[in-house]
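hey so i finally got around to running both of the ones u sent me last week. sorry it took forever, my laptop kept dying halfway thru and i had to restart like 3 times lol. anyway pasting them below in the order u listed, first the sequence line then the structure token line for each. didnt double check formatting much so if smth looks off just lmk and ill redo it

first one:
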Amino acid sequence: MKMRTSRVLAKLRSGNSASCLKVNIGDGQAAEIAAIAGFDCLWIDQEHLAQDWSVLNAQIWAAKSRDVDVMVRVPRGSYSGYVKPLEMDAAGILVPHIMNLEEAKQVVQMTRFYPVGKRAIDGGSADGAYTNMDFHAYLRDSNEQKFVILQIEDPEVLPDIDAIAALDGVDGLFFGPGDFSQGIGAPGEWGHPRLIEARKLVAEVANKYGKIAATSGSIDSLDSFLEMGYRFVNVGADVVGLSTYCKGLIDRFAKSSADQSSGKLSPGKPY
């Protein structure tokens, strides 16, 4: 029995780009709707959101049913918080706010099996097919098919970025523009020269070492991200889409109601 092949890694290793959507709504059905749309990966957040492990489990199952990856942004600190999403069979994890080389090395040690790291071994969860995978194949496939991406979102980490990208066991670097803009004292200034410079640097360094260059931003900026060398891009969030849809409906309802009240519309049929 083999471990599920990561859709993101398969696309990137074949020279293509991979799409991602952030799913904030803590529900398996929300994840499945996004997966049905055809994204390569769903980004589920445990750094900021409050869903429990059972909800995350349902979201991973829903995505896998459509052969879509899940990347879980983990909370900082606990090794078990890093490996549990992988054991649930998430395709990868995103570790926020890596500040230096030493922190990156610690993540590798906690999330990679021998000979790369010293991740705690179980094999009885979904990623190991509930002990139905060969033990050695489980360790090997986990190191090959589960991705570990480190989030670069603070200016303090930039001097170590080359050394971090060179680490065995680090699959990619993810530039986070939001917190980086705050870190340089220009929150929300997406066109700030220092932010643009850092975004370009992250892509350049990731590609230099054959790692995934990942970021997030508006779909309208996708072409510029691809030109920088990014190949794994989160282009939106479910809450943005739902909010925009609902706002559009209520704006149209309000306009029609106002037109009706002013006599611009003929009375419709009663129901």
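and the second one:
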Amino acid sequence: MRGSSEKIRDDSLLPPLRAAQTGLIAEALRQQGVDHGAYALRSRGDGGRYDFLPGVSPVPVLEALTGPLPSLLRRHNKQSSEALGLGLRLVVHGGYLVPSPDGGDADGVEVNLLHGMLEADELRSALADSGAPYVVAVSEEIWHGVLRHGHGDLDPDVFEPARLTVKGGARVTAWLCPGSRGRPQDDGVSEGATAAPLPQDSTETVPPGRAEYPGRGGITFQSRVKAKNVVNGDQWNIR
């Protein structure tokens, strides 16, 4: 959430801001057929991380973030004071997540990469420069596996390639919406989400070479996501 610690906002405004943020995202997802049972929301201060279950396709999630959510946020900001307006960053990433020993939060280099992208200065600048109260960034995994193919109502042409600098100076490729050309004029999107751990019998390993970053917020998806809501049959959308 942009500017959550600004002077215009004291602690009394944080609960309604948080409620608006999570409520609008939940409604946008619901409109695309993704209900509360499809994800777990993990609070990250002024943001959040959504852990999507293995049966959830990234396609309706991306559709929600680039379709109904901008309209919902536009309406919210028109009806709200400046102090209660929302300006939000979102990152969507797919990768292997390591379940924690207590079965709660998830760890791993993909989570670190997600948070690093979310906190990148370039993403903050993109939000400030966009003229819209949101910016969505997708990782290479999501772009190549899902978005560039234009599944469903997704429009890859509204995204633009960029480089984000994460902790340690590593630069990663991402695709941003709104981009500098053909920017959408509607309002925005909010913080994000991640995926459920792989089943315990999985033999996949965590890929090396990711930058570590103990940030917050964002969205990732499990390495393998199977769905039936894109074509009439089983479809593996990521790896």
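quick thing i noticed on the 2nd:
The longest strand covers residues 88-94.
anyway thats it, ttyl
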